[in-house]
Amino acid sequence: MPTRIDGPRLPPLSGISRQLVVLLHGYGADGRDLIDIADEWRGWLPDAAFASPHAPEPCGEAPTGRQWFPLSRRDPHELWAGVCGARPALDDFLDAELARCGLDDSRLALVGFSQGTMMALHAGLRRPRAPAAIVGYSGMLVGPERLAEEAACAPPVLLVHGDQDPVIPVQALFASAIGMAKARLPCQWHLSFGLEHSIDQEGLRHGGLFLAQAFTGRTPAA
Fold first, then answer.
1. Which residues does the UniProt record annotate as the domain Phospholipase/carboxylesterase/thioesterase (predicted)?
2. Which pTM does this prediction carry?
3. Phi, psi at residue 216, to the nearest 5°?
């Protein structure tokens, strides 16, 4: 049985859940790290419920934090084993949360940061039914050479990265975009100049407007 995960939630501003945004934190953080993004986006997404689960494992390098999988060598084999191992727990959480809200995958958006972006892309592109959108901050696509064979859907994807990121270098953004293009999957990207391993206001703005467009078919006034 996959490990059951849970974390903080915020209800929709309108009081009616018509969309679900799931926020996936990075290595060494927990669900509380990203849930405040909801406050940035609720004006554009008043019908969206937000959930930010804690990753399934305690993080050895951050005693109060969590990890989706260990990062010791950070080589492609370790990353691939990690995303594959963590995917069942995430899929179970997504299925349960959608059922709780009375929604299906077409009303789901996945938003990740760093290791959470790895999970959002890995799980989201393999869902039996396409999510409405995936937004990935400061992360990367793991196993791009496997994507064409394994992708089950083609949701719109936005990748955002700082050009001064010392943790996951900006080259990962371009490698991810190329990997998705080779698999014939759509991908947009935004480069945040001067930004290190973080999310800035411009990146938040791009992400929120991207989700609003994906959910409603129209872009609200910025």
1. 18-206
2. 0.96
3. -115, -15
Angle between helices 76-101 and 115-124 (to 10 degrees): 70
DSSP 2-68: PPP----EE--TTSS-SEEEEEE--TT--GGGTTTHHHHHTTT-TTEEEE-PPPSEEETTEEEEEES
Q: Which two tokens stand for residue 29?
A: 């953080």
Total domains in the chain come to: 1
- Check the CA dihedral 211-93-49-152 and report its sign: positive
User: 108-113 and 19-24 as β-strands: parallel, antiparallel, unpaired?
Assistant: parallel
pLDDT tens across 151-200, in order?
Answer: 999 999 999 999 999 999 999 999 999 999 999 998 999 999 999 999 99
R_g of the chain computed on alpha carbons:
16
Give the residue numbers spanning the domain of 25. 9-215
Nearest to 23 by CA among 149, 113, 140: 113
User: Does the pLDDT of residue 60 top 90, yes or no?
Assistant: no
- Look at residue 4 and tell me if it is in a domain: no
**Residue 222 counted as domain residue:** no
